[in-house]
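Bug report (template v2)

What were you trying to do?
Predict the complex of my protein with N~2~-(3-carboxypropanoyl)-L-arginine.

What happened?
Run completed; filing so the output is reviewed.

Input:
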Amino acid sequence: MKAREVNFDGLVGPTHNYSGLAVGNLASQRNIHGVSNPRAAAKQGLRKMKLLHDLGVPQGVLPPHDRPALDALRQLGFTGRDEDVLRSARQHDFELLAACCSASSMWAANAATVCPSADSADGKVHFTPANLRSNFHRAIEAATTARVLKALFNAPDRFVHHAPLPATEMFGDEGAANHTRFCSDYGNSGLHLFVYGKSTFDRNTVTSARYPARQTLKASRAVARLHGLGSERLVFAQQSPSAVDAGVFHNDVIAVGNQNVFLFHEQAFLHQAKLRREIESKAGWELHLIEVAAADITLEDAVASYLFNSQLVTLPNGRMALILPRECKDSVPIWGYLQKLVEDHDMLERIEVVDVRQSMKNGGGPACLRLRIVLTDDEIGSINRFTLFDDDLFRRLNAWIDQHYRDQLQEADLGDPCLLEESRAALDELTQILGLGSVYSFQR
Ligand code: SUG
């Protein structure tokens, strides 16, 4: 069956800000208290979608979540009218208010793990929204993500939606950022690499010391079971603890794969040589495993440039493009390495550089901003077509951003009732543009 990979990008929400909420994410920590530009952030994301669309790579859009998350603040005991809740949270627990204002749903690679119909036992596409239990500001995404995915992929004969895993330490799940699917062609059956940072309750396990590992082995195994993936299609690998301690909080910060190509750093995984052999033997088709030596690019440079957080996408002619953050071009060693990479590997047709600086300052590069969903033409035909990107949607979303987004946001603005009103007005209009129905709780 012919299938294509559609990249669904998370639109950046109107409250995009820098609150230093993510421990182990060096950029988030470094940019705490910085002044953000939500309008620029949303437009940078939109331009990346336009680039992919212009390259002939199918593109979709996921809506931002409603923030400030008044529901969450009320659940935590703040009461009264909306403006009272905001004022009181700001006065008594600013950290909580900031967490409830994060636009973190933009990093759609963490929204869910998705497996295509070519691989699942029942021949349907399976979705498991990530519980994101490692960080409160992200954990509150799960319920809305589940609702949005159900609204977009609303055909029970084709799409199966699982509930997020129990949100406890044992099942820490951060979604597709720790999942790579290899295949000879998108419509053929694939091999799934699930990468975890720790395996709780295994006394022999080695884990990171400085920063928390977010994904657990038990979570990855549960997702694979739910999605009906047979053991012959599965590989589980642990991140190298020293990589986590160097700021690799998700595997997509240090490795990227697409179809039969896997680009990864020498220090990405524990027992790397064994992992290479397992992937090769289970794949059963020709694979290009490109291991980047630490002597060429240090772990630190890899994390700082987000080279591995590029998108590796298949172009209509079957060759591939690497969509890189601008920070890679700004680094002389990385840029030099990339020229050679393209020269040496024929399947790599081109590299494209995107400016997603606003997101990068929170530790989110090009790959973080998208959820990859492999779909057959029939499956594409049964999803909400208004969320599929085209030039008209590009124009409409640009105008929508211009109308509703601020070009500056700082800590002091987060409790501003006007920001809540503006955000709700924006999202209300967006649900009409994207034909979503009432997905937000403030609309119900
Ligand atoms: O979960 N940053 C996100 C970045 C997620 C990147 N995703 C992938 N690598 N797939 C995180 O660490 C920072 C928010 C702040 O500090 O305001 C934040 O949540």
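What did the reviewer find?
Residues 38-54 form the longest helix (17 residues). The chain has 17 helices and 15 strands.
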